[in-house]
Design a protein that fits this description.
Blueprint: H1 3-21, H2 29-36, H3 40-51, H4 55-73, H5 79-85, H6 91-102, H7 106-111, H8 115-132, E1 142-147, E2 150-158, H9 164-178, E3 187-191, E4 204-210, E5 223-227, E6 230-238, H10 245-259, E7 269-272, E8 285-291
Antiparallel strand pairs: 1-6, 2-4, 2-5, 3-4, 3-7, 6-8, 7-8
Length: 293
């Protein structure tokens, strides 16, 4: 990558990071264009040309994504509060926009989300985020750790990844009932299949919370298990942690063959050190663990 291209990417990354950090603010074109060091007339066209979305549309989707997470995964905020956080002056306007985008009212989505329209609605946003610059890794980014065995409580997701959101809801609801807050009890994801399987029905992932307490079901389908200890190659990912496939690909395709190491008989997994929307998406952090012999 040329120095000029790196500079260009950095300028546009500043804009996306600023949007993530200031979703509650008035994100006017003058401010965003100045961050990118462009005239506002050229910046608007440049942004649309790169990301396939206008600045206004991008901000709308980013705010709506945060709102949908607040509705689906947290009951701390009322629908009115979520609407105001999303930049709407009145709950009715928010409800109309939400229904138009997802086919459900905010209240209905909170009770029982339909995840397929949700995934389709945010496809353009996820694609826009991935267009700026693929994160590159180097051997210096990988450390080898001896990790302890961690007892965990597990919510298993088996089947179409489009329905993973429902499993995440169950997982969050159970850990709340069990009093296992993410700040005191670590959160893990264990992938037991490829992200894109030949058949959606074959997709398999475990959602885990570290705990040595006796597992009380509280009406949920929960099982006890463990993440075995041992040597692991660890790669930290900052931002865009909803898609760790590029990091996993680097470990398997580039780092592992050059390292001379061999993998152990346990799947690749991650520990999520913080979670969206508690932090902005570009500030999310996850450690990816590749178990080694």
């Amino acid at each position: 990558m040329t120095a000029a291209l790196r500079n260009f990417h950095a300028r546009m990354q500043r804009v996306l990071d600023h949007i993530d950090r200031h979703l509650d603010d008035d994100l006017d074109l003058d401010t965003l264009s100045s961050l990118a060091a462009y005239s506002k007339y050229h910046f608007h066209r440049q942004f649309t040309a790169i990301f396939g979305l206008s600045v206004h549309r991008y901000i709308q989707l980013a705010r709506m994504k945060r709102a949908s997470y607040q509705l689906a995964y947290s009951d701390a905020d009322s629908v009115t509060d979520v609407a105001l956080d999303a930049g709407y002056d009145a709950p009715d306007a928010f409800a109309r926009a939400f229904r138009q985008r997802f086919g459900q009212s905010p209240s209905s989505f909170r009770k029982s989300p339909d995840w397929e329209p949700w995934l389709a609605a945010f496809g353009p946003l996820d694609e826009a985020r991935s267009k700026l610059m693929t994160t590159t890794f180097s051997p210096d980014d990988v450390t080898i750790r001896d990790v302890p065995t961690t007892p965990v409580a597990i919510v298993e997701h088996r089947g179409d990844p489009a329905t993973l959101g429902a499993s995440i809801q169950r997982f969050i609801a159970w850990r709340k009932a069990a009093g296992l807050h993410p700040k005191t009890h670590p959160t893990f994801t264990v992938w037991r299949s490829e992200r894109r399987t030949a058949s959606p029905a074959d997709y398999s992932v475990d959602l885990c919370v570290g705990t040595d307490r006796p597992i009380m079901a509280h009406g949920f389908d929960i099982k006890a298990g463990e993440i075995p200890g041992g040597r692991c190659a660890v790669l930290r990912v900052i931002g865009n942690t909803h898609n760790l496939e590029p990091a996993a690909l680097y470990l398997y395709r580039d780092w592992l063959p050059a390292s001379g190491e061999e993998t152990r008989d346990f799947p690749i997994y991650c520990q999520r050190l913080n979670l969206f929307p508690e932090v902005a998406e570009h500030e999310t952090v996850a450690d990816l663990f590749l178990p080694l012999k």
